[in-house]
Amino acid sequence: MNRREAARKEIALSCPHCGRNRSKTPHGSFSGWLFRSCTCEVSAVGNTESRGEPESLPVLPDNFELVRVIGRGGMGTVLQVKERVTGEHLALKLLHAADDPLAVRRFEQEAASASVLDHPNLVAVKDYGLLGEGSPYLTMEYTEGETLAEIIEKQVFLDEKEALEIFIQIANAMAHAHSRGVIHRDLKPGNIIVEQSGGYPLVKIVDFGIARQVEGSTISTITRTGEVFGSPEYMSPEQCRGDLIDQRTDIYSLGCVMYECLTGRSAFAAPNPVKVILKQLHYNVGGFRRKYRTLDISESMESIVCHCLAKAPDERYQHMAELVKDLEFVFAGGPPLVLLDQVKRAQQKSDRIWQFALILFAVSFLPYLYLFESFDTVTAVIAFAKCFFMQSCIFVILYFVLRVGLFMRGLSAAFKNGTNFYAGDGWLSLLCFCLILESLGAAFFALLFLLDLNGIRTGIEMERINTVGLTVLVLAFQFACGGIWLIRRARGSSGHFW
Fold first, then answer.
1. Which of 298, 313, 382, 417 gives 20 to 30 Å between its CA and that of 328?
2. Contact between 243 and 254 (Cβ < 8 Å)
3. Is pLDDT of 308 > 90?
4. Which helix (H) or strand (E) holds 473?
5. How far apart are CA 442 and CA 83, in angstroms?
6. For residue 349, what are the contacts with CB-CB under 8 A and spacing of at least 6?
7. Which residues contact 270 (CB under 8 A, 6 or more apart)?
8. pLDDT of residue 32
């Protein structure tokens, strides 16, 4: 057995959530308890979903003949039907919740989104209508292939060349959708069908049920404020937070799909959806080739995937067409030129910012050169060192205030969007606000001391302001906010900001 087959078997036998071996022993047994430290308990629980008898199907329009039930979900059912006149086989999607206006609008959104698209790698919507009982349905092109999720389940992971053929088609299809103002928002292996055509894989992307249409500067959406839709393991951080999104969220989702195809494991798998979303927000997948070194993933492919999975949208590919170019470069055996150019420009921008900051920092010390004219060398050096220290403290404090302020803004945005995951975040925000005031006070006193060193009298007596009582009061308030926050975090519900 070669390395790749051994790796395939090892990945297939490990839990996708924690990476440990799947437990084959019931947890109630003594051996199950004895060896539970080296086996996975998540995967041993099994599927507890009840599978009752299939519900009766509604009466179909006269021009359709039922062939089989393709799949059934919580919101709808997909059928394979035959058009009686033409004999064409179609996929017919029925909505169960016909009395839910929001569900009906999402169903209509799928038809509207797909109707403006015309691409060989997107499943074409043929028609949309209502059944006699009022349930909406739409008919789509029928595809015989397997979903990418089923392929991964059977093969565990794909060879890089085989995967690249699929990735290029997905990216091309989504580039077309984005050019028509449609963002998928739920790109995942289960929504990607792969069929064989002339010995080559042919990709078809389906399910635009939660897609968003962008027309000029107007974004039309059917989600309520704070609602988050999508599959957590493939959702971008901004989608997890409930922020406004653009085409870059599909680029992130495609990055998740590529990672899973190449490694056989989801990049952000966890035992429950909340932990998955937390990993989406905070966990970076950089350097995953080291973890899967036996799979022969190229450095260029790793760089592309990690670039797609950048947490900040500005640090990813900005357009799907850029990703298409790099995938084609790598498929041809070259480097990802678009990525390398973007990284180079980002580095140059960062270097310019730091250069400007250093120049500003250096120029701010020019006024202190008079010290060497007014005092002897030793005294001037000591005075200059004091000025240097105090001014450096001011710069550091202001940078700290900026970082804490950005953190507070993130907490506030999470609360407004209804997507904060911890109770008591309001107290943490109050603690941060107190730290900002305390830091600004320290910067103010450093400035007064700096002015005093240079012989500039402000008339403010620091001793009268900086009293022990005020310091104790501020510290007590900080400890109180921190303590309440920790208690609320440990006991409270995630739905309560305070």
1. 313
2. no
3. yes
4. helix 468-491
5. 77
6. none
7. 17, 276, 278, 279
8. 45
CA angle 52, 45, 8 (to 5 degrees): 105
CA-CA distance, 319 to 342, in Å (whole number)? 12
- How would you class 46 by CB atoms within 10 Å of its CB: exposed for 0-12, middle for 13-18, buried for 19 or more? exposed
CA angle 230, 214, 239 (to 5 degrees): 25
Q: pLDDT tens, 27-52?
A: 444 444 444 445 554 444 444 333 33
Between 3 and 140, the higher pLDDT residue: 140
Please give the distance of CA 399 from its chain centroid, rounded to a whole number: 27
CA distances 146 to 118, 170, 193, 427, Å, are: 21, 15, 5, 50
pLDDT digits (tens, 9 = 90+) for 320-375: 999 999 999 999 999 999 998 988 888 887 778 778 877 876 776 666 665 666 66
Measured on CA atoms in the order 375, 377, 378, 380, is the torsion positive or negative? positive
Strand pairing class (192-197; 200-205): antiparallel
Q: What is the DSSP letter of 14?
A: B
Distance of CA 306 to the CA centre of its chain: 12
**What angle, rounded to 10 degrees, do the helices at 425-453 and 377-416 form?**
160
77 in Cβ contact with 68 (< 8 Å): no
Q: Tell which phi-psi region holds residue 369, choosing left (phi > 0), alpha (psi between -120 and 50) or beta.
A: alpha
Please tell me what DSSP assigns to residue 232: G
Quick one: which H or E segment has residue 102? helix 101-115
**By the 8 A CB rule, do 238 and 249 touch?**
yes
pTM higher than 0.90 for the full model? no
**Cβ neighbourhood burial of 41 (10 Å; 0-12, 13-18, 19+):** middle
Residues paired with residue 318 on neighbouring β-strands, in sequence order: none
Alpha-carbon span 128 to 92, nearest angstrom: 10
**pLDDT bracket for residue 256 (50, 70, 90):** very high
Dihedral sign for Cα 122, 123, 126, 131, please.
negative
Distance CA 228, CA 378 (A): 65
Contact criterion met (CB below 8 Å) for 114 and 124 = yes
Catalytic residues: 186
Pull the structure tokens for residue 41.
Answer: 């308990």
The 8-class DSSP code of residue 181 comes to T
Which among 289, 350, 265, 287 is positioned nearest to 314, based on CA atoms?
Answer: 350
Q: In the predicted model, what is the mean pLDDT of the chain?
A: 78
Largest CA distance in the chain: 104
**Token pair for residue 335?**
């480097």
